[in-house]
Each structure stands twice: as C-alpha cells, then as structure tokens.
Amino acid sequence: MQNNSNNHSAGSMVAIENLFSKFQYALSQSHDENVTDFMEQLHQLVQGNNALILKSMTELLPLHFFVDDYQRGYKWTPQQVKDLLNDIDEFTVTQSGFYCLQPVVVKYQAPQSSKDKSSWELIDGQQRMTTSYMILSFLQHSKFTIDYRTRKSSGEFLAYHLPSTLQSESWQDYIENYDSELNEQKLSSGLSSCNLDNVDNYHFYTAYCTIAKWFENKNDQQKQGWLNKFLNHTKVIWYAALDMDAAQNKQKSIDIFMRLNSGKIPLTNAELIKALFLHYANAEELTEVARLKQSQMAQQWDSIEHSLQNQDFWAFLQPYNKENKHANHIELLFDLLTNKPIHKANTLESQDAFFSFNHYYRELKQAANKAEFIDYQWHQLRQGFYRLQEWFENDELYHLTGFLITRSICNIQTLWKMSERVTKSEFVKLLKARIAKELVKYFTDETKNQTFSALQYGGNRQHIISVLILFNIAAHRKQGTRLSFNTYANTQWDIEHIHAQNSQQLDDSREQDIWYSSQQALIESEDIPKESKAQLLDSLTQWNSLRKIATDDEENRLALKASLQEYTKQLGDVVGVLKEEEMDGLDNLCLLSAKVNRGIGNAIFAQKRKLILQYEKGINGKQKQCFIPIATKNVFSKFYSENVSHMHQWSTEDRKAYRNELIACFNFYSVMEGLA
C-alpha cells in the first residue's frame, strides 16, 4: 500500500508540475494579489519537489532542456558511449533496484511568453542527456528536447538530420551529400539554413554511429528489453539549483558549472546526501524551529567534515599508498553506515559512486514520517563519527586500528562491524587477536613451524616493514607518545641493515682507490678507538703497497687477497662482525626512509649513528630535517643493550638484546611466547 501511495503522490506531483508549466505565464500576467500569492506558493512547491530527487528516464521525456552559451560542446568518446550502453545492458532488474546515472544539475526557467513553455537549464549533465537523446532517437522512441543557445545547428542536426547520417560512409561523405537540394527542402519545411559541418555535429555523428554499431546484432526483442531497462529502471539524480533573481540567475549557473567542471570535480555523493537531509529535515513543516534545526544540522555537518579533514585523523583510517577516493571525508561514514560493498570490485554496487545516496533515498521514500527518519539517520551519523573519534583519541585503539588499516591487514569496514555490540575492552582483545593472527603468518616457515628466523631480508618486504612499524608503536606506547600514521604514510620506506654488509668486490683500480680513501678516513675518524688505529693503518698500508706491485702472477694475487682478508678481520674485531647467515635476520634490520638509507650507504655502525643524527637535525643546516623512527634511533643509541661501552660497534650482545625486545613486542599480542 505504501508503494502505491508513493506512486500516486509522485504522479500527482508530476501533474501539478505540468499544469504549472502550462499556465504559469498566463497566470503571471494577473494583477490579482491572491493569484500572485498562489503562483508564488505553487512555484515554491514545484521547486521544492525538484530540489533533490531521483527521476526515471520516462519522467524526463516531456521536458525541454537547454544548454547555455558558457558551456563547452559535446565531447563524449565512442568508449564512453559504449560504457553507458554496456552498463544498462548488464544491469539486472530487481523489484527495488535501478541503475543510477551520474547527477544531472538543472535550473528551472519560467516561460517568457504565452508561446513559450517552461524549460530546464542543463548546468551539468549535457553529455549524458545528449547521449540519451541520441539513443532514444536511434530506437525511434519519443524523447525530450534539447536546444543549444550558441549552437543552433546542433539542436537542428540532432532533431532532423542525425538518422540520415547512417546512410553515408563517413562524415565527409555525409557533408558532401548535403547539397543545395537538401537545403531547399529544409527551407520549405520552415527550418533555417545552417552549416552542419562543425566539430559538435561531428561528435554527435561519431556517437550515433557507435550507438548504431552497438545495437547492430541485437534483434527487436533485445532492443525492446534494453529500452525498457533504460526508460523504467534507469534513473538520474536530479539536482535542481534554487532560483535567483534575474540579475543573478546566469552568474549563478556559471558559478555552479565552473565548480563542477574545473579540475573535473563532480557533484559528490556527500553533497547529495547533505541536500537530501537538509531538504527533508523540515519536510513536514516550514516553521522557524524547523529552519533552526536545518541550520544546526549544517553546522554539525561542517564540524564533522572539518574534524575528518585533520590529516592525522584521516591518515590512520586509510591504507598506505592508497589514493583518497573521497572528495568529502564524511563520505567514509556514509559508506560505513550504509554497508557499501567493497569486496566485489567489479560489481555495479561496489562501483556505484552514489551507493549511499541511493540507499537513503530508497529508505526515505518508504518512510511514513520523513522528518523522523532524517532525525534518526542524523543521530546515527553523529554516533558513527563519535565512534571513529574514540578510535582516534584513545591511544590504544588508535595504534591497534591504525596499524591494521594502514597496513591493509583489515579494511575499516571489517573493524567497524567488529566494534559493534562489544565493549571497548572486548574490542581491544579482538584487535590484538587479529594482529596476532597476522604475525603468526609472518613467522611461520616452510615447514609450518613458528620461528623468529622465518622473516628475513630478501623475503616479503611489506611483512618486514609491518613488524618494524609495530615495533615502533611499542616504543611509543612505552613512553606514552603516539606514532604518526600521517608521517608514515607520506614516507617512502627502506629496510636498513644495522650492521652493514661487508662485501667489497674491488674489481678495478678505480674502485680500489675509492675504497682505500674511505678506509683511511674511517681509521682517522673518532669512530675507531685510538688503541686500534695503528694496527689497522699498518694492515691497510700493506694491502695498498701489494696492490701497486701486483701483477697477473698467481702468487701475488693470493698475497693481495690474504692482505685484504687480514685487514677486514682486524676491522671486524673492532667494529663488530656478523656471520653471513645472520646478516639478513630481523635482529639486524631497522626502518629508515629511502632518502636517509641512500645517504648513509654501507657505513659502519658508528658512522651510521652519526649520519642518522645529522639527517634528523638537517645536515650542516642546509638540508631539510628527515624523520627518523623512534625505534631506529633507539637501536643506534643502544637503548636496548645492557653494555653501551663500545658505541663504535654492533656486537652479538647488542643483536641479542634487540632480538629479545622484538620478541617482547610480539608477545604483547601473544604470538611468540616461548620462542627463543
């Protein structure tokens, strides 16, 4: 019964609009104040009904549209035309479902004389509506009309010449056949002569040929089935701009058009929902109280959007390296509240940019009391925002949810559902369990055994970055600070060996010269203890002397190799050495930005510490300061080590202490208990 009532109401409203359009000009000439007042109220009613609604293509057929002179011409490519045809074709008709086109932004124009009829200015939607016109024309169905204010030939070409273009092999062929005889026929029929050879008409022709080719292999039944979907199960989001006075009218249209088209910014899902909510918030009454409620809702909306625009707030809700798809961040809340599908990326539902608007619009149509429905949905919106705000402001929830979302382990929709109908402490347990489940995968080797050594440099890079970020979160948690997901999202990360890889090929004299100079500088630096400098310098000098006299003689080559090994061994005794199999273990890795990692190269531990500090401060005050993760600074300051007397080397004891700290971090999630 409700559906029948709604349909009856909609039909009545259309009838009122048609009567208003037919007699508006005549009644506007009356000097009777009662008639004038009646017309003004009726005009507001018609405008209000059209402020933001869904209209089927069938409802658009009686209307007249015009495109003003400030707009560009028709530009749709054949692919865009085919996409529209395919989308309608692939859409499956259900009892309540419909295919939703992009918004059509219009502005009502009253008739200016008794011969005129009311019309709608197409501020945005010219391309879609013109293509729809051509499709209906090809299928020989009745259609709306479109005029182009500065391109009169465009309207005439669409109305009178388009079908005949298919008889020609090409556009040039058609133009050549458009001879004086056709011009005379056109003049005798009351149409003005005009030049059809222009870029707009060429694009019309190209689109029309695409439509004809698409329907080429379809029989009459298939064409009729497609047409039924298009007319009765395809709707546009009809967004009517409010009337202004005559002086402001055109400028208002231009302003709206420029906002919608500069930088290709479309009318957003959030803007449509906002208009829907504000419009129906006082649908039952036009009192001062209702207007105050509208104003309060608008202020609260702006406050929520402003909060979500905070970069730190927004960053912890978004996966790293993912382009922000929301022009208005409040749209994320609507996606969550309406349970927008995200898993099936190729479905029409998941691709529907106006999914949540369509959801609210359908629900609103069924609501007995629309104002109460809006009140309830507004309450849900605010509660949803408060939930996200709690995640952001509570350090524990912030780190747990932020880690899972930003590392793409869980999407926010999953966590949203997980948080429903549970206490905060229960939600925390669920989050920790989900992180534990992920970490178990990282530390499980090929034999299905759980081991610390399963995660190695050269393996899954993203897994290593994830656990190192988790370790940094642990460091922040212990000192009562917060990791900035915004900073992490805007940094290109590298995995750095704490103790540098020692391989030196030294294949030619140039490489040898560079290496020799770097070793001299190292020995002379403060990073090498004084008691070790003389011995190291002697060994390095001996190697340099041998390489200058070395020939192709095998004995000399072996002596040079032995000299290099001796020097490397002595240096390792001073600065520390790791076995080859230990070099790529997690306990010799930390997180650095790609820029800093490139800058410190293959330096020894003590040099790396000095360079890292310089990068954080800004080298010599000339370079911009670089962000260094807190755990990386802790590693190079030996924060986790018991013995910090040998700051020039990364020792076995240092590595073990670091390993224990890593395991303790993972044990926080009950992952690696009992693992040595």
Textual characterization of the structure:
Residues 65-278 form the GmrSD restriction endonucleases N-terminal domain. With 676 residues, this protein is α/β, with parallel strands linked by helices. Among the domains are: 50-267, no CATH class; 293-477, no CATH class; 509-576, no CATH class. Helix content is 59%, strand content 7%. The protein contains 30 helices and 8 strands. The protein has helices at 2-28, 33-49, 57-60, 78-90, 126-138, 152-161, 171-177, 180-188, 199-214, 220-232, 246-261, 269-281, 288-308, 311-315, 330-337, 348-351, 355-366, 370-393, 395-406, 412-419, 424-442, 461-479, 485-489, 509-524, 530-549, 554-575, 594-600, 605-617, 630-636, 652-667, and strands spanning 52-56, 64-67, 99-109, 119-124, 145-148, 234-240, 493-497, 589-593. The strands form 2 sheets. The chain has a 6-stranded mixed β-sheet. A two-stranded antiparallel sheet has the order 7-8. Helix 5 (126-138) packs across helix 9, helix 12 runs parallel beside helix 17 and helix 25 (530-549) packs antiparallel against helix 26 (554-575). The longest helix has 27 residues, at 2-28. The protein is elongated. Residues 1-11, 244-248 and 345-350 have low confidence and may be disordered.
